[in-house]
């Protein structure tokens, strides 16, 4: 539901970084989203389609890398992947676990065209 | 050409939240972020908490709602400073809104700020405001199976209040199952059965809260 704001942040950070490099176009924005966040990819894509026109990311793609949840047991040091409902250590049953991954919400990288790239030639259609 | 960015998407929110945090630390203020569905009893729980702790702590309240200031008025009527934030449609509070709200409060005089987040079980968990703890309220009529549908908010809360407990016999609320699911999601969080408007169970909750406030103070003086 707040994916609009999230995409707005993604776009402004990406456009700022791209313009610093003198880019005229953002082809791709790559982000990571942990499985323990409440971010819905469909809503992100929808917001991206709504908000990117008029920016240099218009026509580009938003690629989402989903990161699974994992934790380390504070008692026996076992590292394990887990779902939302099973944060107990599978090895010793301890509930003292330290979250490792799953809450990511980061912009990883962007792919840009620098200015005046002479690719006006039309790509061969099929 | 590829450019590495490696930056949190909510960078700005995190930065402003850290600024809020240092202002709270400088002034020794404990901050609680209360999250729940609309109507679960956030305002009622705040009123009950004020009544129990006002002799001990100087309290202020930040009210987040999409519109209106009716909740802030209820708090002000108790003689407690209340700041209303209208998010104008946004479904959660962000740290810049908290920043503007605390600019209007005398932090040096305060011990406890209670933030009533926008009624929503989804995104308030995503936004750090600079608080000490997030606490979640579920009301009995919402059903014992809510944690299956909204696991994150239960997983990230430091305590869970089960409010409107006076109605538990009227609803098909399986308390054992509720406690078991919360435990599987969040093994450390205590669950307090409370009737905010009747006062029952409030003491166990406010004892826990004042324990946390005292712990934070002890830690601050040691540092
Ligand atoms: N029976 C009962 N009703 C309650 C209790 N707590 C709140 N309510 C009622 O629930 C409604 C919503 O409460 P409110 O505190 O405004 O919820 P908020 O939207 O989460 O702030 C009000 O009519 C309250 O009187 C409770 O413990 N028991
Ligand atoms: Mg309210
Ligand atoms: Zn273990
Ligand atoms: Zn939101």
Please tell me about this protein's structure:
The complex is a heterodimer of chains A (126) and B (223). Chain A has 126 residues and is an alpha+beta fold. Chain A has a single domain, classed as hypothetical protein PF0899 fold (2-Layer Sandwich). Helices cover 23% and strands 33% of the residues of chain A. Chain A is built from two helices and six strands, in the order H-E-H-E-E-E-E-E. In chain A, the strands form two sheets. Chain A has a three-stranded mixed beta sheet with strand order 2-1-6, with helices on one face. A three-stranded antiparallel beta sheet of chain A has the order 4-3-5, with no helix packed on it. The longest helix of chain A is centred in the N-terminal third of the chain and has 18 residues, at 3-20. Chain A is elongated, with a radius of gyration of 19 Å. The mean pLDDT of chain A is 89. By secondary structure, chain B is of the alpha/beta class. Chain B has a single domain (6-222), classed as 3-Layer(aba) Sandwich (Rossmann fold), CATH 3.40.50.300. Helices cover 39% and strands 21% of the residues of chain B. Chain B is built from eight helices and eight strands. A seven-stranded parallel beta sheet of chain B has the order 4-3-5-2-6-7-8, sandwiched between helices. In chain B, helix 1 runs parallel beside helix 4 and helix 2 packs across helix 8. Chain B starts with a strand and ends with a helix. Chain A binds chain B through residues 1-2, 5-6, 9-10, 13-14, 17-18, 21, 23, 31, 36-39, 84-88, 95, 105-114, and chain B through 1-12, 90-92, 120, 122-123, 125-126, 151-152, 155, 181, 184-188. Strand 6 (105-114) of chain A pairs antiparallel with strand 1 (2-8) of chain B. Bound molecules: guanosine-5'-diphosphate, magnesium ion (MG) and zinc ion (ZN) (2 copies).
